[in-house]
Amino acid sequence: MTMQGEKVMRVHGGADVFGVARFDFSTNSNACGPCPQSLNDVQQADATHYPDPDYCDLLQALADFHAVDVRRIVLAASASEFIFRMSALVARTASAQCADAHVWLPACAYGDYACAAQAWGLRQVQNPDAAELLWACEPSSPLGQAHAIWPAWLGQPHDMSQPIVAQLVLDCAYTPLQLQGQSSLTDAQRDSTWCLWTPNKALGLTGVRAAYAIAPLHADAAVQSLQALAPSWPVGAHGVAMLHNWVQADTQAWLAQSRSQLQVWKQRQMAALKDLGWDCLPSLANFFCARAPADVDLPTLREAGIKLRDAASLGLPGYFRLAVLPPAAQDALFAQLRPNVQVGQA
User: What does pTM read for this prediction?
Assistant: First the structure.
């Protein structure tokens, strides 16, 4: 992904100028959602008053859920907002030392990492050990696979006396939707990273914008700097309600059941596409990348209420990233890809 001298374009799945597609394979929201408990709490949220400006109860609930010190929790308006705020912090810290700030990005990744780096003048490098800011995502997007490259210092004690300390951010957007496998990081390695959580995908509530990050150990100064860069009330009442609900036992039980259902739907969806001649790449998550055997008429699909996500903007040209959807949505897609051929039953 090129940043120097070339504008990074923002491309997203989901709603477009035609509205929300009836069968939207372009966004990775949990297709079993919305989570009923979460939706109810969001709908019942009191939007007539400001939330607590210090978010005391929410921060403690999130800290208890992850079994970490509450001082390590940083709230954000969304994952994208945190991505831009962290990029700003790294750029500002380097500037204060009259140094250049460098960023390392996965070859295939969410475009906002590059957009934020470009906006704040971070220079992209190919060597992760030469960067002051590194982005990772596991399961990765668009591939839905384990992260492949980690910096050599990961899991080792950081020298906090250094003027510039490298920051590794692990985007955990799809961790709650990982259908198989385990994290490739040990607990010690996770304690060296920022872990960025965005529960709205897992809960099927992507329209509710709220996120939080867990700071590495001994990162108090960075936490304070990030909080100083945040506006007042970064998370509104609906986001607060969603995050409070996220940590509830019944919500986590619902999520576990949804992963089992998604696994069944995923096997069906991939098998049918392979029968249609598509090249489907392996994935651990509730989405996967696939290459069609011939050109796909996207406008016609969109007219039929079906939307796909071209993975070119995610660093994988020639492929589509497809969310796992229920059988009815799958059959609508298959019917368009191979008219007049009946597909198998769920």
Answer: 0.91
